[in-house]
Specification:
single chain; about 190 residues; mainly alpha; 2 domains; two-stranded antiparallel sheet; two-stranded antiparallel ribbon; 4 strands
Length: about 190
């Protein structure tokens, strides 16, 4: 009986410590030292919150850069990949459909030159970033739809490129929301 009481006390102490005190302290420190990140890295346009830099959104207009396909329809309340294997017929059908959509939206592109992140979902289904190859393939479509020059959009992609973390981790990429905010602001001028 002594061991049962001791384990109940330890459980109660750790429940309070790790379930209440630790999250409150981490939340407080995060909000004091990194308020933008702790509040979800929310981006504004004309004073209105339009999204988070951390969560992909569905941009379907030809005048915007498009994010990766999403396995969860861009709803952040349940992020997940499809978990389908490379030989699964549902995955093959999905990717074939995505390839057809990319070709329809961006003109004739050889399958070999379509970057994987343009037709495959990310592990979370909410990846807010796209590869440079993906962004560059979308430039002609965005230029045609917005009237912005391709050279301006190429410079924009280069300017918004985020390089490898610490110079070695990941690949250079661009945040789709950031690109589209600059495009929107340019069009508003």
């Amino acid at each position: 009986m002594t061991n049962v009481l001791r384990s109940l006390r330890v459980t109660a102490i750790f429940a309070v410590l790790l379930g209440l005190i630790y999250p409150l302290v981490i939340g407080l420190v995060g909000n004091l030292l990194f308020p933008y990140q702790a509040q979800g890295s929310m981006e504004k346009h004309n004073g209105t919150i339009i999204g988070s830099r951390l969560i992909a959104q569905s941009f379907t207009s030809a005048g915007y850069f498009h994010a990766r396909p999403s396995a969860v329809d861009y709803t952040a309340n349940g992020s997940a990949g499809s978990n389908l294997g490379p030989t699964n017929s549902a995955l093959i059908k999905e990717i074939s459909g995505n390839i057809a959509l990319v070709k329809k939206q961006n003109g004739a592109i050889a399958n070999a030159s379509i970057p994987a992140d343009m037709v495959e979902t990310s592990g979370s289904g909410l990846d807010p970033d796209i590869s440079l190859a993906n962004a560059r393939l979308q430039i002609p479509r965005v230029a045609k739809a917005t009237g912005l020059s391709e050279s301006y959009l190429q410079d924009l992609v280069a300017r918004e490129t985020q390089n490898r973390f610490l110079g070695i981790f990941g690949d250079p990429h661009v945040n789709v929301l950031d690109l589209n905010l600059v495009v929107r602001n340019k069009l508003d001028q």
